[in-house]
Amino acid sequence: MFIIGITGGTGSGKTTIVNEINKLFDASEICLLSADSYYKNNPNLDFKERDKLNYDTPEAIDFDLLNKHIDLLKQEININVPNYCFTTHLRLEKSTVVKPKKILIIEGILILTNKTLRNSINYSVFLDCPRDVRFKRRLERDIKERGRNHNDVINLFETRLDMMHSEFVEPHKTYCDLILNTNENININPLINVIKKNLR
Q: What pTM value is reported for the model?
């Protein structure tokens, strides 16, 4: 199994690129994992407590489970991926079965912060995008898709996300094999070529 990691700041275009890849390649050849599915579950806390947690730090991700699942996929064993609800900050009872394929793509803001996971990735891609563009995309997404308050999203970005990006995202660009500018017209051909090469 060839593992590709796609990372970059919030709003840098990870989902857009993954969707493009899904259009170009057969689902029987590529499986996808999002690190967002592996946020730690905190049912012991009430909603207000969960809502105050920092979800943009490596400690928020259950890397033990994520790395275990990747090991199982390498052994050609199906995994049950958690379904995480961003509205309640809890995992849903029902999980999603993911089957091993020739290529695994894992995407997430924090995936390169974990050394075990970083060492498992064969080819890593960093999506480089200006702060203001990422901010606009995040604002739009959180309001439309996650029911967040406009001012709350702005406050979160200014008081936490900027700092977390500088500490946990930007420094890991140095580990990446490919850096893509995702501000406007994205040229993903270098990534497509890597996928084609490893599907042969």
A: 0.88
What pLDDT score was predicted for residue 153? Answer: 62
Find the DSSP H helices in 11-146.
14-24, 47-51, 63-74, 115-120, 131-146
- pLDDT, one tens digit per residue, over 52-93 is 888 889 999 999 999 999 999 999 999 999 999 988 889 999
Residues 165 and 138: beta-carbon distance below 8 Å: no
Location of structure tokens 């290529």:
103
Helices 189-199, 14-24: inter-axial angle, 10-degree rounding: 50
- What is the Cα–Cα distance from 1 to 32, expressed in whole angstroms? 12
Residue 161 sits at φ, ψ, to 5 deg, of -60, -40
Q: H or E stretch including 187?
A: none
